[in-house]
Write a structure and sequence with these properties.
The chain is of the alpha/beta class. It is built from ten helices and eleven strands. Helix content is about 30%, strand content about 20%. The strands form three sheets. The protein has a seven-stranded mixed beta sheet. Strands 7-8 form a two-stranded antiparallel ribbon. The two termini are about 30 Å apart.
Amino acid sequence: MATFGKTNFNTTVYAASRPTYPPALYDFIFDFHKGSPDAKFDRAVDLGCGTGQATIELTHFKHVTGLDPSENMIHAAREMLANSDSQPGPIVDFVQGSAETLDFLPDDSTDMVIAAQAGHWFDWTRMWPELARVMRKGATAAFWIYSEFRLPQYPALTPLIVAYDQGTDPHKSVGPYWQQPGRSILINHLVGIPDGNSVVPDAFEPFERVYFTGEFLVFSGAEAHALRWLVGEYYPELPGARPVVLRRVMSWDDLLGYLKTWSALHTFKEHHPSDSAHPDGPLEVRFWKALRAGVERGGEGVPDEVVVEWPVAMVLARKAT
């Protein structure tokens, strides 16, 4: 992803402001991996590792490598690892390079390959053959993304979020500034990633698509912090939806910090440097204020914190031979 490789992209703010994946998500992947009688826990690789958030969670494995094309991200990941107070675990290293070219890995050498919030950027016509080469029998590939955030306490604000994220007005929306086709693949929950067997016949079994997009929480009135119930799915057109797993209670300042990490916003600012002088604040602040105003219109004031949820889509594959 080109924006993350630019020298003026703030990886520290990025790492601090992005949501972290819950243990339940990793347990789901590890359980899938254990479902193979050939499963081993020697080597794992995290593709498009960014600042290493997911890399360091692969604690079941003896040797873990994070790979990213951005020198900035690799530097941040190595710095994070050096400053970590974690207990002794796997040997972890970080390598700069392309996910589609895994020359540092021998054939049949890898037990798990993951990509967190990165797979929508890959060239899958090259990716699947390379995975088929490096993965040993019974190895797992798990690639997941989180899509457009939602505020389950305030479902009426969803159209405002969609307009800001996917709109076409180049002065009011970041929509025109997302790098394509990657963003469209993410918004469509990785449906655009081809089945690995369509690229390398009979290499993967099973090949699954999993959606943590259902049973979102809705809160009610003055009891918003105590009363909640399950009412449906964010994307009912996606099959077999599982309950949402990526959820965070954020202050409004934290939410603004998250909005500032969007790569499309970074590109918008390059195209519109004068936007920072807008009397109502820069674009992301105007959107943030609009969200707060929408909450206030509900008549109960703006709480100090807000629940944020992200639907998650995942592609799972196991090496067949």
